[in-house]
């Protein structure tokens, strides 16, 4: 029971630190899970994170996979809730503000100003992932093919 | 939603802590249908992948040590990297931003991927810059 509480607090903290998504909070997640709590070793952490990244869905669900490993289904549930709920509440509040300010002429340009940072960070994320997984000519070929497929065609990226 | 609207929501989602697409789901969901919308959008986003991850976690516990699994995971990770890159490139080309905003975007890429600066720093510097540039352009256009 105490373990579940610890997992919840750990991931709730990570949730609020994760500015820029799961990849941004990866070092801190590693520090908490491996160094501070000793819930798993380095290798396991990397493999579980890769598993979550490889699987469809937002990388943030790495928290779910870690939770499962630490404490089974209950651990997964608690870790997932911890990771998602605090941030979602903030987003909820932000959405309220945005909706209320909808008519304001300056909202759209102000919001558009955030777009380059958003796209830039997504691109950077992709580059970092490519660097990590580009270990052979075949993997580079896969990266290139999948990039072009998503960029040039209108088919859902799920097909990748 | 238009490309711009989506990119704006995503940008806001990134600035806020937590999963970008998760935050985007909450905001988009709320915009269309309040609390129910936010809940439904978020569940829709996460439930499928969660179910898949449960299956994968069980498989990992059972078979994760097999040597054949690692190269397969590598390949999948490579495809995932390509997907993310492709999405970014697609968004960049569809958005047709003015040159200065493109420069901000490139700065973000350089800061995160090349210099590996902390996310907080990149966002704290480039978000206000981007907003300032965009507002300035809008004011000029309004005159």
Give the helix/strand layout:
The complex is a heterodimer of chains A (160) and B (143).
Chain A: H1 2-17, H2 22-36, H3 42-54, H4 62-100, H5 107-133, H6 137-152
Helix pairs in contact in A: 1-2, 1-4, 3-4
Chain B: H1 3-15, H2 20-63, H3 69-95, H4 99-114, H5 119-142
Helix pairs in contact in B: 1-2, 4-5
Q: Give the biggest beta sheet of chain A.
A: none
How many individual helices of chain B? 5
Rg over C-alpha atoms of chain B, rounded to the nearest angstrom: 19 Å
Question: Helix count of chain A, per DSSP?
Answer: 6
Low-confidence stretches of chain A: none
Helix content of chain B: over 70%
Ends of chain A: how far apart?
A: 41 Å
Largest sheet of chain B: none
**Structural class category of chain A:** mainly alpha
Structural class of chain B: mainly alpha
Give an overview in words:
The complex is a heterodimer of chains A (160) and B (143). By secondary structure, chain A is mostly helical. Chain A contains six helices and no strands. Helices cover 79% and strands 0% of the residues of chain A. Chain A is flat, with a radius of gyration of 18 Å. Chain B is an all-alpha fold. Chain B has helices spanning 3-15, 20-63, 69-95, 99-114, 119-142. In chain B, α1 crosses α2 and α4 packs antiparallel against α5. The model of chain B has no long low-confidence stretch (mean pLDDT 82). The chains are: A mainly alpha (160), B mainly alpha (143). Chains A and B meet through α1, α3, α4, α5 and α6 of A and α1, α2, α3, α4 and α5 of B.
Brief digest:
Chain A is an all-alpha fold and 160 residues long. Chain A has helices at residues 2-17, 22-36, 42-54, 62-100, 107-133, 137-152. Chain B has five helices and no strands.
Comma- or semicolon-separated keywords:
heterodimer; A: 160 residues; mainly alpha; 6 helices; B: 143 residues; 5 helices
């Amino acid at each position: 029971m105490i373990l579940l509480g610890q997992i919840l607090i750990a991931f709730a903290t990570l949730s609020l630190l994760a500015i820029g998504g799961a990849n941004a909070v990866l070092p801190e997640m590693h520090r908490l899970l491996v160094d501070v709590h000793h819930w798993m070793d380095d290798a396991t952490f990397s493999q579980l994170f890769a598993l979550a990244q490889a699987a469809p869905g937002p990388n943030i669900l790495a928290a779910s996979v870690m939770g499962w490993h630490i404490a089974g289904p209950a651990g997964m549930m608690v870790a997932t809730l911890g990771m998602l709920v605090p941030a979602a509440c903030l987003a909820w509040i932000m959405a309220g503000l945005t909706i209320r300010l909808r008519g304001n002429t300056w909202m759209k340009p102000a919001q558009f100003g955030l777009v380059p940072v958003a796209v830039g960070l997504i691109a950077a994320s992709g580059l970092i992932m490519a660097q990590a997984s580009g270990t052979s000519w075949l993997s580079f070929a896969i990266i290139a093919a999948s990039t072009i497929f998503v960029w040039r065609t209108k088919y859902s990226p799920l097909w990748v | 939603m238009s490309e711009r609207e989506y990119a704006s929501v995503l940008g806001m989602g990134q600035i806020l802590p937590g999963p970008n697409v998760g935050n985007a789901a909450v905001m988009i969901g709320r915009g269309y249908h309040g609390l129910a919308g936010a809940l439904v959008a978020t569940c829709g986003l996460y439930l499928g992948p969660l179910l898949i991850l449960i299956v994968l976690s069980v498989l990992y516990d059972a078979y994760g040590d097999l040597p054949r699994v690692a190269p397969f995971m590598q390949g999948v990770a490579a495809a995932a990297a390509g997907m993310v890159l492709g999405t970014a490139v697609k968004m960049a080309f569809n958005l047709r931003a003015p040159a200065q905003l493109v420069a901000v975007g490139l700065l973000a890429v350089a800061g995160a991927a090349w210099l590996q600066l902390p996310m907080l720093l990149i966002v704290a510097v480039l978000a206000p810059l981007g907003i300032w540039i965009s507002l300035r352009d809008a004011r000029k256009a309004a005159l």
